[in-house]
Design a protein that fits this description.
The structure is a single chain. With 497 residues, the protein is mostly helical. The protein contains 19 helices and 2 strands. It has a domain of 221 residues. A two-stranded antiparallel sheet has the order 1-2.
Length: 497
């Protein structure tokens, strides 16, 4: 009898990957959507099973072809992998549910099976990154996800998505090239691609200069793909002009998975092998994180388009994640991982609410949505609750992550007080740009010719409110993400084998 539990790490990638050719062949588009949805929910179920095992203290390892590491390809799932897997597969399932309601207006029916197959390739790439323990496989899965993402972004009817996708492609290719050069340098000096083996071999290399250069290439390359300020130029237009369901998926997941890879590489491989790694990591990322908070939030204040406003908000949210990581301690990394999870919940719910507005409003500027709350009360209520989570109001998931982040920075003395002031200032900016949307929808009469046409479709509303209620649930009962985040932080710092 097959022990499926032993194969869960492989199934996490196999389920969406093997569904891709089936989806391409299915007609009509409803069948293709059903197959993609089934694969995504199946991947979500696998991630839940992996998470339950991790919470019981199990670390999943899997050797492909029964070749043990470092000679063969190894898959490995720990607490850090598990929490991001939950985020990615859960978001994919909700965004696909929303896509069923929004995609007919954005993509021709005969092209939708190809669109859903590209979606599953993105899911395959992201989950592949999260279960891999091999530096080159990281690159392979990263490029699978990236190439399919370019197709998703450019797949809609909005022609402005084409230059956005091209910019995304160019910047992503540069980032991937930097990463590959760094990995090549490490392989040249150590003769291995397995992360654990790499970590054990680096310290015996006589000339550490190539290792330092490799660390720089890998860090900058991944920072570019994660839209770390000021390397975020590709992100605003990508999120603004992509199909709405694609924006939900990418905004919640893509940068978080690359940040996961950045933290795993920097802390697993370089932490014990580079002198003053902690100081170098902090002084590289903390200034960039502070600038991201202030400039990203500041630009969002003046954006009139809702998707573009939330895109610049995402640039600022990457800053929150990097501030926690830049502290290089358990409290900071716990807050960083928790912020990844909770920001995905909040931003996914906000972009779903924006997708609802797009179905019934003539546009997505502040003027277009004036008075929208009268005809779309459920949609605007969802936007308000998700916005409160983004701001960090008590009772929402966003409050939990900001509480942990403020607690972590305040342990750092004068530097911590300065960082806390900046975090609070950025949060106040988010109050203002979320309030501008609420004010337009609730307290202004519609401009003639821009009136809404009733509430959003029930399927889209169901996906939106599922995400909203998840924000409330994990705000009131945060035991699961906090436990996984804490375990991930200890793993990153080497406190747990």
């Amino acid at each position: 009898m097959i022990d499926w539990n032993a194969h869960l790490a492989a199934l996490q990638v196999i389920v969406p990957m093997f569904t891709v050719p089936l989806v391409v062949l299915l007609r009509p588009s409803g069948l293709a959507w059903a197959a993609a949805m089934t694969a995504s929910i199946g991947a979500f179920a696998v991630s839940i099973a992996l998470t339950l095992g991790v919470l019981d203290g199990q670390v999943y390892g899997y050797s492909l072809g029964s070749w043990p590491a470092p000679y063969g390809i190894e898959l490995r799932v720990d607490a850090f992998s598990a929490i991001v897997l939950l985020m990615v597969t859960g978001t994919s399932s909700l965004a696909l549910l929303a896509a069923r309601a929004t995609l007919d207006a954005e993509i021709e029916s005969h092209r939708q099976p190809l669109f859903y197959s590209a979606w599953l390739l993105v899911l395959t790439g992201l989950t592949g990154i999260l279960v891999s323990a091999d530096a080159f496989n990281f690159f392979v899965f990263m490029e699978i996800a990236a190439l399919a993402s370019y197709v998703l972004v450019a797949g809609g009817k909005d022609r402005r998505a084409l230059p956005a996708a091209f910019t995304y492609l160019v910047m992503g290719t540069i980032g991937a090239t930097f990463y590959l050069v760094g990995v090549g340098l490490i392989y040249m000096m150590t003769g291995t691609l397995n992360l654990a083996d790499m970590e054990s071999r680096i310290h015996v290399v006589a000339d550490q200069t190539p290792i330092m250069v490799a660390a720089g290439f890998i860090t900058v390359g991944l920072a570019l793909k994660a839209a770390v300020f000021p390397l975020h130029a590709w992100l605003p237009n990508t999120y603004t002009y992509a199909p709405h369901a694609v924006t939900v998926f990418l905004a919640a997941c893509s940068t978080k998975v690359v940040l996961y890879l950045l933290l795993r590489f920097d802390f697993f491989v370089f932490q014990a092998n580079i002198v003053s790694h902690d100081i170098q990591f902090s002084w590289f990322f903390l200034p960039l994180a502070v600038l991201a908070l202030l400039i990203g939030s500041g630009i969002a204040l003046f954006e009139k388009n809702l998707k573009r406003m939330l895109a610049y908000s995402s640039v600022a949210q990457v800053g929150y994640i990097l501030i926690g990581a830049g502290l290089v301690n358990v409290a900071g990394l716990t807050a960083s991982v928790l912020t990844m999870f909770n920001h995905a919940l909040a931003k996914g719910a906000l972009f779903l609410a924006v997708a609802c507005l797009a179905m019934r409003c003539t546009g997505l500027t502040h003027s277009d949505i004036k008075g929208a709350a009268r005809d779309m009360p459920w949609t605007m209520a969802a936007f308000v609750v998700a916005g409160l989570s983004l701001i960090g109001m008590p009772g929402t998931a966003g409050f939990v992550s900001k509480w942990y982040l403020l607690s972590a920075v305040l342990e750092q003395g004068l530097l911590g007080i300065s960082l806390a002031i900046i975090i609070v200032l950025s949060s106040l900016m988010s109050v203002i740009y979320i309030w501008r949307v609420v004010e337009a929808a609730y307290f202004h009469a519609p401009i003639p010719g821009t009136a809404t046409r009733g509430e959003a479709p029930p399927l889209l509303l169901a996906a939106t409110w599922t995400a909203v209620l998840a924000n409330v649930y994990f705000g009131l009962n945060s035991a699961l993400p906090v436990a996984l985040s804490s375990a991930a932080a200890k793993t990153l710092l080497g406190h747990v084998p």
